[in-house]
Amino acid sequence: MESYENLNLQFIDGAWGKGNSDSVIKNLNPFDESLIHEIQASSEEDLDAAHEAASKAAESWGKELPQKRAEIIQKAVQILESRKEEVIEWLIKEAGSTRVKAEVEVQITMGIMKESASFPTRSHGYIFDSLTPGKESRAYRKPLGVIGIISPWNFPLNLSMRSIAPAIALGNAIVLKPASQTPVTGATIAAKIFEEAGLPKGVFNVVIGKGSEIGDYFVKHPVSKLISFTGSTPVGRNIGKLAGEAVKKTSLELGGNNVFVVMKDADVEKAVNAAMFGKFMHQGQICMSTNRFVVHESIADEFVKKFTEKTEALKYGDPLEEGVTIGPLINHDQLEGILQDLSKSLEAGAKKVCGGNHDGNVLAPTILDHVKDDMPIAKNEIFGPVAPVIRFSSEEEALKIANSRDYGLSGAVFSENIEKAVAFARKVETGMIHINDQTVNDEPNAPFGGEKGSGIGRFNGDFILEEFTRLQWVTVQHEPRDYAPFS
After folding, report:
1. DSSP one-letter string for 243-298
2. Catalytic: 322?
3. 287 is known as an active-site residue
């Protein structure tokens, strides 16, 4: 089996070719910043062509038999499985993934694809009683038509596929714009997989371009009926505004400032083990990564000591090197932003326990103690391997900290009293929260999404069925109706 070629091209209406913009996107390896390849970017004319192709393809694809749509997705899963090593290599060199993270990403991607293969026969309409004598009410579920997808760079394959596979399964066509940092793992390798699986041309289209040049045009394009976006809250707010002006639906999964609350009765060893994964998986570059460790003051010293011992044992550096669990941040700008917040927080009184040094874009795993909730490292979404520990004295104080930010994506609560932890968790303003587990959880049949500035809508399972389809109410008047006094 030969490796995929021409992954630096646009994919429009079943054809691979260069974009028509004058801009060139340089795809860089985040570890050593070496050039992987260059991409001739898409222009607005390319976007028009992609949307026109998707609109045309959606007419027939939306009428395709459910077993045919399921069959193609199942075939795509088999192809991804057979090309697993090829995809993992791309995730390492393009997204800065460690091997462990890349393997996890491929597995969860296959999970949502397998779940999506069941969607064609799970998409149901309704027949229900009418309030009018002699009338029958029906609701028919139909595809939206064309869905625009804008995907991020941190888990590019999975966070693209969680929209791609459900959209296609439910009879929609798509136009996908990946992050400029991960055009292959976020788009073109998925397009190759579905092309190989036999997906009809025009159903899956890829446009690669800079958000500053084509982003607004992509969102406002009159052909798409929904924009599925995963990314930062500021960008998401702008997308919501533009989509609202165009009167189209949005599914927005945005930033997070996730809390990991450790109650005074918690098992500290279990909490620390979970903290390692929740903070340092993919260098903390996950929307669900733990941003603030809120620990009861009576056990904070023990927690910090054990957390530090395990953190100092982590190997960081080149993600291609065996045993490395902390790889590079996606680019130098990301690193600089974290270092600034780190420096300002230390100046404000936080205490560095370990880490803080960096080599290129690789930042050593770092722990700060005695952090206050208003310090930059706690106030801002870190998106890096820095763990701020905030001490609290009462549950009321912990809850106030948990709800202090304009984010509500994920969270965690550790306590030996399960019901007490659940009662606390239900007061936290977040879309997802986990008892005695860390914040990074995603299952293909569970509702995934946030509150407040962390987005709107839910991914996965039956919940995405509602997002990516529309209902049409149709009634049948079986018996003559009394229209008095007009008849």
Report:
1. HHHTT-EEEEE----EEEEE-TTS-HHHHHHHHHHHHHGGGG-STTSEEEEEEETT
2. no
3. yes
